[in-house]
Amino acid sequence: MRAALALRRVASKLLFFFPMPYVFLFLAIISEVIGTSALAASNQFTKLVPSLITVAGYGLGFYFFSFALKTIPMGVAYAIWGGVGIVLVTIIGFVFLKQKLDFPALAGIALIVIGVLVMQLFSKTVSH
């Protein structure tokens, strides 16, 4: 719980540059990406430390996501969370786990990024 409070204090300092709901969304994405990365190392929850990191990562991710949902519409927030999370996990898999992607996979991920950008830049539903 102290870690969550410390992260919240850091996030509040970022308010100067970014609206707070998007800081919480960013923290949710990072927490979930850490949890997902540790999940790959948990060996189906048979290794204690990666398993604990997975549970903590997902727990913090949902905790921060709940604050983002106070302002950002749920569908938009979830699309951003899922899209950015997919891209970050893919990069981690490529860099650290040496996972290769073919052209259709890369094209699909590019479409996800384009979708998130279209929502952020053109949608009147997204709060800025």
Automatic annotation (TrEMBL):
InterPro entries assigned: EmrE-like (IPR037185), Small_drug/metabolite_transptr (IPR000390), Small_multidrug_res (IPR045324)
Domain of life, per lineage: Bacteria
Record field: transmembrane: 21-42, 48-69, 76-97, 103-122
Keywords on record: Cell membrane, Membrane, Transmembrane, Transmembrane helix, Transport
UniProt subcellular location: Cell membrane
Bilayer topology annotation: Multi-pass membrane protein
Family, per entry: Belongs to the drug/metabolite transporter (DMT) superfamily. Small multidrug resistance (SMR) (TC 2.A.7.1) family.
Name by which UniProt lists this protein: DMT family transporter
Native species: Hymenobacter bucti
